[in-house]
Specification:
The complex is a heteropentamer of chains A (168), B (129), C (322), D (89) and E (386). By secondary structure, chain C is α+β, with helices and mostly antiparallel strands. In chain C, 49% of the residues lie in helices and 14% in strands. Chain E contains eleven helices and twelve strands. In chain E, helix 1 runs parallel beside helix 3 and helix 5 (189-200) packs parallel to helix 7 (240-255). Classes of the chains: A alpha+beta (168), B mainly alpha (129), C alpha+beta (322), D alpha+beta (89), E alpha/beta (386). Chains in contact: A-C, B-C, B-D, B-E, C-D, C-E, D-E.
Chain lengths: 168, 129, 322, 89, 386
């Protein structure tokens, strides 16, 4: 689990883990409204920067009272793309019954939850692997990413240098 | 006064038309010409004309100064010429078109006004008309 | 056509309506020239923080929190530019592997008190977004080098970008094109060195790419071209174009010609002894991009260089007037 | 400019003789009026001369319309000149 | 080195007297000024401090009914018919009994402006010059504004915002020219305000912009600002689009077009915006654009001083906004003059013309007195500054 704080937002603790071979996708989808974390399908995620730049955006929006969705968790799905269509983004980045790989993110304000790792593991039936670019690139769908990125100009710059070059 | 203003007009169909000052006619004794007033459109919009020319200057004995008299005479001659030429334009136009007299007169006046504003073709202030 | 009153004074410009537009262009050129000269003086003095900056720096500090230490590096009418060593969002676990010495640029468009808040907010947002957009689009063009956008808060007027360039050896200043050329014209170095020639050719190529793709920089001076040294080859300087605050998409030859002219003037005013060769190399690099595009490219290049010459003549005539 | 700016077409003419009080005045009037160029010389021409006390203005035009406007405008100027002499000399 | 004392005053006097004639738009202004021969003007750039004394400053404005603009022909008629009377009055006020002895130079506006009105005044200027045997100087109207502004405010080297019915320019001095840094690409700001005033049919007395300013003060929904197009293009700006937009709003307001969501609540049909609000929005928008390009010019030339000249410069809201901008700059200061000097007048023409004259510039051939509608500020060689 990657635990960090964004320098500009010291009151928030960000915890993120990458899980593969998820088996309970269907249950997760059913219960999604009650899950206090963001669940991101990694099909379209090929770098850590992609996730954290979105987290940055969420916190900027949140701090200046401009979030457009119900919660900080759902807002993260929206912020993964420059596109402001909520439904479309949920479809693209949210999990579905067939989701096998996902990133789980918790954003907590003025709180510390030492049991978070336990909670993640209890919720997700799958295998936790290190959240890094290498692992993400193994499990993502490059073709699909290429497609969304060309229509999503700003995202491309967020990719680490060698990766972003793939798309130019 | 030794000499008065004279004008001579000629064109293909009128070889020689002269304009002269008639010192007994009031139109040659005013600085306020008939054909050089405010434009019709401002008057219609309710303009009160406060921009008439200054009146002629008089000597202590009540006589007009020579130059004031000259200015009055010229004002009269200017009216004569303007009226004459406007009429000529009307004749020239009516040969081509069959508009009613009043309409045609308005049209000619418009044309004159248009020309009078001519030098300022791209000055913004002229946009109202 | 409007008939002009024959007895009224002739207006010597009345029939040359184009003249106004031309003058406006030339004015812009002059403005840029003046600025280039000012810049030449400003390089020696450090950036002085005016009264405005003190207050604004405080505002930025509040926004960024003490966790993001910043130092101001430039201040214009519209934006203040800072550097920082802190990445806005990447966890340390990730950044430590990349580069511990990495710097970032924060460009801030401060609120203007004189503007009605509604107008001010709308402008800040719109302009920040539009600069980000143009950077992103340029970033995608193959071969074109511009800074990478890292983060944006359009509503508050912040852009984070990667920092490019380095300090030149022997206190020759930051590695923009201007300082680079100065470096080669001092300390007994050869101002016509092969490295200079190659670098200027590459700068020309960058501008060529920009223009070929119908973008204009709008403020192309030698300080807005940053050289990044290839880590494997110390004599390979890779030019990057920065500051697209006045950038635009444009397919007008005039805009492109002005871009080229502004850069030429910048070179002439700061490196006058060698400017002929320098500009020649720039144009060669520029042309090479167009020439690669076949017939259409050569045709467009011809038009563009023609207009460049025209703009140049206009500029010269103007500055010699009276 | 077209080739039609020969005098053949300027068949509408008007000559005005204005007798000033002195020859100096006539001469000044001439000098004041002369500098302003004619915008459409192919349609309208004017010549100012002074003969003794008299200012002689010879107008030529292609038609009465242009003549009307040009002449009246020049007369306006002459009126200003006369008033200046009258009030300020 | 600049020496303003190169040409000595007439008849061994220790002061100069200049007559200034202005008539480039709807104002006819006659001014008489006196400048002492000073040691301080022997060297250096002291042209902003000539100790000018105003002996007469007379103005008559051609006024049109509400909703109407002024036509060149009517304006020219006004100038023709008032010019001699006003000169006579100004001379009397300045106690000048013998112009041919007392006056050093006659200064007239050569442009830019409306052709016919300019021409009406130059006819009088030429005649006076010949009958009094006093030299003539043709003055650029904008330079007149700048020099008058500098003299009144003693601003040495300000960035100048010139805003009037016919002009919108940001100007800064550099190498003997007043360079235009930014300007309007279409209509002038004063013209934009005048035309909106016509749409609203508000009176032209004392002038339309003043009445818009007064109405703007009465805006009731200042927080709910109507957003208008903001059209700054680099250093330049354009205003015709804004005018068209707000004219449309005003017309919908008069027609009570409930479909316009800017103006009427789409559910209740309640009117959200008043005519006063529109005036307020127009001013806020246009002035923000002006201040922005002024600030850019200041950044370019490293100046902290602004001088606002021209008729629109008397607008207090514009002055206030400019002040707010300047307050954020080290030693920033905004200079503005009151309506006696920032609205077109003859004194300013005399001021700039006399500077020109003192530098030895005189018209020797009347052919050089031809007026011109287009006369760019940067065409004038400013010999009196360093």
């Amino acid at each position: 689990m990657l635990v960090s704080k964004l320098p500009q937002f010291p009151d928030f603790t960000i915890s993120a883990s990458l899980f593969s071979n998820i088996e309970n996708g269907e249950d997760l989808v059913k219960d999604i409204a009650n899950i206090p974390y963001s669940l991101i399908d990694t099909t379209l995620i090929c770098s850590v920067e992609q996730i954290y730049s979105a987290i940055y955006r969420v916190l900027v929006e949140y701090k200046f009272n401009r979030i457009k969705t119900k919660s900080i968790n759902s807002e993260l799905l929206l912020c993964l793309s420059q596109n402001s269509n909520i439904t479309q983004n949920f479809k693209k980045f949210g999990i579905n019954a067939n989701t096998k790989n996902l990133v789980i993110v918790s954003i907590l304000e003025n709180q510390i939850n030492n049991d978070l790792n336990k909670e993640f593991n209890a919720l997700l039936k799958g295998e936790e692997i290190e959240l890094n670019n290498e692992n993400l690139q193994k499990i993502c769908d490059m073709k699909a990413i290429r497609k969304i990125l060309t229509s999503n100009l700003m995202m491309i710059q967020i990719l680490p240098r060698p990766l972003s070059m793939l798309f130019s | 006064m030794s000499k008065l203003i004279t004008g001579t007009y000629s064109s293909p169909d009128i070889p020689n038309k002269t304009f002269q000052v008639n010192c007994n006619d009031a139109k040659y004794l005013t600085t306020n010409g008939k054909t050089t007033g405010s434009s019709e459109y401002v008057l219609k919009a309710g303009q009160i004309d406060r921009d008439r020319p200054s009146g002629p200057r008089r000597l202590p004995d009540g006589q007009l100064t020579y130059l004031s008299q000259l200015r009055c005479n010229l004002t009269g001659i200017q009216d004569d010429i303007n009226e004459f030429l406007t009429e000529r334009m009307q004749i020239a136009k009516s040969k081509k078109t069959k508009l009613t007299d009043t309409k045609e007169e308005a049209r000619i006046n418009d044309e004159i006004n248009h020309l009078l504003d001519g030098g300022d073709d791209d000055t913004e202030e002229t946009d109202t008309v | 056509m409007m008939f002009l009153n024959p007895a009224l004074p002739g207006n010597r410009w009345a029939l040359q309506m184009k003249e106004k537009k031309i003058s406006i262009r030339s004015n812009k050129l002059l403005i840029k020239l003046l600025r280039t000269l000012k810049e030449a003086q400003a390089i020696i003095t450090n950036i002085t923080i005016s009264k405005m900056s003190v207050e604004l720096v405080e505002l930025v500090n509040q926004y960024l929190t003490p966790n993001v230490p910043i130092s101001p590096i430039a201040q214009g009418a519209e934006a203040i530019v800072f550097t920082t060593h802190v990445h806005p969002y990447l966890p340390n676990e990730i950044t430590k592997d990349i580069d511990t010495n990495k710097k970032y640029i924060i460009k801030f468009r401060p609120p203007k008190k004189y503007r009605h808040p509604v107008i001010d907010k709308s402008l800040t947002k719109h302009r920040t977004l539009s600069e980000a957009r143009i950077l992103s689009k340029l970033f995608q063009i193959e071969g074109l080098k511009v800074p990478r956008l890292i983060a944006m808060d359009a509503v508050n007027g912040y852009l984070w970008m990667e920092f490019l360039g380095e300090d030149l050896p022997n206190n020759k200043g930051f590695s923009n094109l201007k300082n680079f050329l100065w470096m080669y014209s001092s300390d007994g170095r050869d101002p016509y060195d092969k490295v200079v020639k190659e670098t200027l050719f590459k700068v020309g190529e960058q501008i060529g790419l920009l223009h070929w793709n119908d973008y204009c920089h709008g403020d192309l001076t030698s300080s807005n071209i940053v050289l990044v040294r290839d880590s494997n080859d110390i004599d390979n300087w890779i030019p990057h174009l920065i500051d697209f605050g006045l950038g635009s998409t444009s397919n007008m030859v005039e805009d492109k010609g002005v871009d080229l002219y502004v850069l030429e003037r910048a070179i002439i005013s700061t490196h006058s002894s060698y400017s002929d060769k320098y500009n020649e190399w720039l144009v060669k690099g520029f042309s090479s991009v167009y020439e690669k595009q076949g017939k259409n490219g050569s045709k467009k290049l011809g038009e563009l260089l023609g207009r460049f010459e025209e703009v140049r003549l206009r500029g010269r005539k103007r500055s010699m007037l009276g | 400019m077209s080739k039609r700016d020969n005098n053949m077409q300027m068949e509408h003419t008007l000559t005005l003789n204005i007798p000033f009080a002195t020859s100096k005045q006539a001469d000044i009037a001439c000098q004041v009026l002369r500098p302003d160029p004619i915008l459409r010389p192919q349609d309208f021409q004017v010549k100012y001369t002074s003969k003794g006390n008299e200012l002689v203005m010879e107008f030529q035009s292609i038609d009465d319309r242009v003549l009307r406007v040009g002449v009246s405008s020049v007369i306006d100027s002459v009126k200003t000149i006369i008033e200046t002499f009258d009030e300020l000399e | 080195m600049v020496n303003l004392n190169g040409v000595k005053p007439k008849n061994g006097r220790n002061y100069y007297i200049a007559l200034g004639l202005e008539g480039s738009a709807n104002k006819l202004g006659i001014g008489v000024i006196k400048q002492p021969l000073l040691d301080s003007t022997l060297t250096g750039d002291n042209s902003h401090d000539c100790h000018t004394e105003i002996l007469a400053n007379i103005r008559d404005t051609y006024v049109t009914p509400p909703g109407e603009g002024f036509l060149p022909r009517d304006t020219a008629r006004h100038h023709k018919n008032w010019c001699v009377r006003l000169i006579k009055k100004a001379l009397a006020e300045a106690k000048i009994e013998n112009p041919s002895i007392d006056i050093d130079v006659i200064c007239f506006t050569q442009g830019p402006g409306m052709g016919a009105p300019l021409h009406s005044v130059v006819i009088a200027a030429r005649t006076c010059s010949l009958i009094w045997d006093v030299p003539l100087i043709g003055v650029n109207h904008c330079v007149g504004h700048i020099e008058m502004g500098r003299e009144i405010t003693k601003a040495v080297n300000p960035v100048v915002l010139y805003v009037s019915g016919g002009n919108t320019q940001v100007i800064a001095y550099s190498e003997n020219r007043y360079r235009i840094f930014g300007e309007t690409l279409d209509i002038a700001i004063g013209n934009c305000l005048d035309r909106f005033a016509r749409t609203l049919k508000i009176p032209n007395i004392p002038f339309p912009g003043y009445n818009i300013e007064q109405m703007a003060k009465k805006a009731q929904h200042k927080d709910n600002l109507v957003l208008l197009p903001y059209t700054v293009k680099g250093m330049d700006l354009s205003m015709s689009g804004i005018l068209a937009f707000i004219d449309g709003l005003a017309k919908d307001l008069f027609k009570k077009n409930k479909k316009n969501k800017f103006l009427f609540d789409s559910k209740t049909g309640e009117q959200l915006i008043t005519v006063e609000d529109l005036c307020f929005a127009l001013q806020e928008n246009l002035f923000a654009m002006l201040v922005e390009i002024t600030e850019r010019a200041m950044a370019h030339v490293n100046s902290n001083q602004v001088l606002i000249v021209g008729g629109v410069g008397s607008n207090l809201r514009l002055q206030e906004m400019m002040g707010q901008m300047c307050a954020d700059r080290a030693n920033g200061k905004v200079h503005a003059t009151d309506e006696r000097f920032c609205i077109d007048n003859g004194v300013m023409i005399a001021q700039a013309g006399l500077l020109q004259y003192r530098m030895g510039d005189v018209i020797t051939d009347l052919a050089d007195t031809v007026v011109t509608q287009k006369f760019r500020t940067d065409e004038v060689y400013v010999s009196w500054r360093e």
